[in-house]
Specification:
It contains five helices and no strands. By secondary structure, it is an all-alpha fold. Helix 1 crosses helix 4. The radius of gyration is 17 Å and the shape is flat.
């Protein structure tokens, strides 16, 4: 799930051009996920535990991808990876 979201975020935040095969690969991956989980998706009720789980996993994917974008930005600025990760995990 992170490939399509990271692709969109890279385009939005960094204005990076994306090769045509990257979105195509992401679409194939999403299709595969849809095929695997089709039985669960057809009877989806957002009030059920399954619906909440799907929503929470999608939100988790977005947060993960925002972290990827931020990490890419700090690396592009020349900050060291290990030290930056340590400072970010230390909190306020």
């Amino acid at each position: 799930m992170s490939l399509p979201v990271n692709t969109v975020f890279a385009r939005l935040f960094f204005r990076r051009t994306v090769a045509g095969r990257v979105p195509a690969g992401g679409a194939v991956g999403l299709l595969g996920i849809g095929i695997v989980f089709w039985p669960d998706l057809t009877g989806l009720d957002l009030a059920s535990g399954t619906g909440r789980g799907i929503v929470l996993s999608l939100l988790g994917t977005v947060v993960f991808c925002l972290g990827n974008v931020l990490s890419g930005k700090t690396q592009a600025a020349g900050l060291p990876v290990i030290q930056s990760t340590g400072y970010s995990m230390a909190g306020p």
